Structures are given as C-alpha cells and as structure tokens.
Amino acid sequence: MLLTDPVVLENPYVRLEPLDASHAAGLDAATQGLEYAWYTSVPAAASIEIEHRLADHAAGRMNPFAVVAGGRPVGMTTLCNIDQPNRRTELGYTWLSPTVQRTAVNTAAKLLLLGHAFETCDAIAVELRTHWHNRQSRAAIERLGAKQDGILRNHRFGPDGTLRDTVVYSVLPHEWPTVKRGLEERLARG
Predict the structure, then answer these.
(1) Considering the entire predicted model, what is its pTM?
(2) Predicted local distance difference test score (pLDDT) of residue 45
C-alpha cells in the first residue's frame, strides 16, 4: 500500500476518514476556540482548506484525514510531504478542537497514523514538525517518543509575516515498537 492510498483508520477512541467536502460544516464548528492559536494553522474556512488538501493529495504529496470522535469531525491531520520512492513521510498539518485536546484523541490518532506508515506502508522514517513557540505540540510530540532531529531556524514565514523556527522530530522503524507500546500504555491508563 502506498502512503497516499485513501484508507479509513479506526480504534475505540477515534476514526480517521479520508477528508472530503462532507466534513466541512463539522470542521468549521470544531475550530471554535482556536481563533487565537497563532502558532498553528487553523483554517478560516474548512471547505477551502479541504480543497487545498485534496489538491495536494491528487499531486501525491499528502494523504489528508478528518479526525472523527464521538461521531463528529473534531479536527484534521495528514501524512504529508510524502516521498514515496524513499518511503518517508511527515505526520502533520494537524489541528484539533479544544473540546478534544488533552483527551485520548490525539494519542489514538498518532497510534493509527504511525502504525499505518510503519506496518502497512513500510515507511523508513516519519517526521513530525512544529513551531518553536507551540510548546503544547512540542511536549505532545516528545511524549510520543519521537526524537528531536533539530531546529530549522527562520524556516518559513507565518501568515502574519513573522518568521517561524521549526522543530523537527522523527520516529524510525526500529523505534516504532517502543513508541507503539508507549502510546498503547497511555491509552490504557486513560
């Protein structure tokens, strides 16, 4: 299976569905409370963001998902910057509604995506990147067991024109069993 192949991933906590236009209204509602999250990309209009992500999927760069919990869309996530010939990808462009932050949803989604990348698609590396100032995201990535590869200083411009330092993490295949066990243990503890 290719990293770009559409697939539904599901466990008792979350369902990751191939992103499509039917998710737009629910995702617009899920952005409530994220208006001031300047260090992460939250779409102003889900329908426009869905179009962008589907165009990247068609170009072979991304596999976008709607994050569904409790029967409703609560966010988006992707396998992105896909390098299929080298079996590398990044897990990113993730945002979640404040109603599910600090719940099992993010851990369960990461377990599904990493498992799919390593166990189904035979990935050799999965990167995770975040804004230097997004301490909540950095802490979550570190709790996953990903190792920090470095910091890309002045990596890119944000929507407001400020420069972003990007922190790069990764998980490699030989690390996956330990990362997987850690994620499963966190879910079992609640």
Answers:
(1) 0.92
(2) 82
